[in-house]
């Protein structure tokens, strides 16, 4: 009877061990799959769990369990070889080694490559988003820069304009001595004359404006920033004064006819405007006998020797109106403007009154001579030398022979004349101003001289000159003691130039 061999306890233990290892491998694979899912979801680095090599090696090294025989032949008789039975074949199948699990490397490599592709696609997407963000930020920055520039230009434009272009009232401002640009700006802002005091500070420093004066100033909200700056660079008053509406300027050597036109122009701003004065009113006032007598009483030293009405003068006050810049207010009249000019001449002549008395020269004579010197000379020294020529000729009872007086008699003084007209002047003109025919001075001045010409007339140079002539091209004056020397100068510096001009 054949005995059937069964698995021993040892072989059963081996089979249990093999099943346990397979279970571990399966658990590791499941864990690895879970880990890959987490990596894909959160974009984490690849951290797949590999099957421990020790387990794989142990699995490969574990031999299949052997089947032990449970029965043997009787010891007394040698046993014959026993053929394998179906039971034995079944046992050998049971003890055959378990098939190896497929390798994890191809799966891991595929998962890793897929993960890299996903990361690359995600990186590209992130790069696109980053570029879009950068473009948006740059665009916003450009918009901010442009908007800031527009705001700055608009603000500057509004800050330099008048606070109220329709305002007519004056605002009195006191600027203390030594005030900085920032402090002046704060004062102006407080008075409502500028939009921002700090802007005034930056603007004046950027434009390099300085030389601001101290004192009291009358300003208006209708003034733009440039006008306010210009006003503050002029002298302020020590005490508050009536508001100034504008200014008129009388240049040195102007005649009364020219002054009548000059007072119609307001020079207080860069854009010259019109004053409330009219030329006709001015000319009427300077010929008003009642007004003149009032001025004589007010300025006795200045007008003590004023020409009489029948002396042949065109205007009795010609030469007595001091050339300067004058302020006028809202209620200033033409006569008040004339009064200011007479007051200024009286003030400038005050230092000379005693000298004139000691030299036995009156104010009218000095101003008459100074009016010729004003037009004939260009420099202080030339004027003193020219004044000496006139005095030398007066002392020798020689005619003064100045074209200036004849041009005044013709009504052309102050107008442009050609060299030919000046050279061919009518020396036979019947007029008290024809000092080619008449000796001595004219009955009165022919223009209103300035301080330099007055100084030359009061204190002339001491020379022996009797003649002078000016170069018609550059104005240089050449003096001579004799008529022959004078003719030579005239031929060289006048006639030859006239001939060249005619030929050209």
UniProtKB/TrEMBL annotation:
The lineage of its organism: Bacteria, Bacillati, Bacillota, Bacilli, Lactobacillales. Residues 36-49, 66-80, 88-103 have a biased composition (Basic and acidic residues). Keywords: Cell membrane, Cell wall biogenesis/degradation, Lyase, Membrane, Transmembrane, Transmembrane helix. This is Endolytic murein transglycosylase. It catalyses: a peptidoglycan chain = a peptidoglycan chain with N-acetyl-1,6-anhydromuramyl-[peptide] at the reducing end + a peptidoglycan chain with N-acetylglucosamine at the non-reducing end. It is a single-pass membrane protein. NCBIfam families: endolytic transglycosylase MltG (TIGR00247). Residues 36-127 are annotated as: Disordered. It is an enzyme of class 4 (lyase). The chain crosses the membrane at residues 133-156. The record marks 376 as: Important for catalytic activity. HAMAP family: MltG. It comes from the Bacteria. One of its GO terms (molecular function) is lytic endotransglycosylase activity. Its EC number is 4.2.2.29. Functions as a peptidoglycan terminase that cleaves nascent peptidoglycan strands endolytically to terminate their elongation. Belongs to the transglycosylase MltG family. It is found in: Cell membrane.
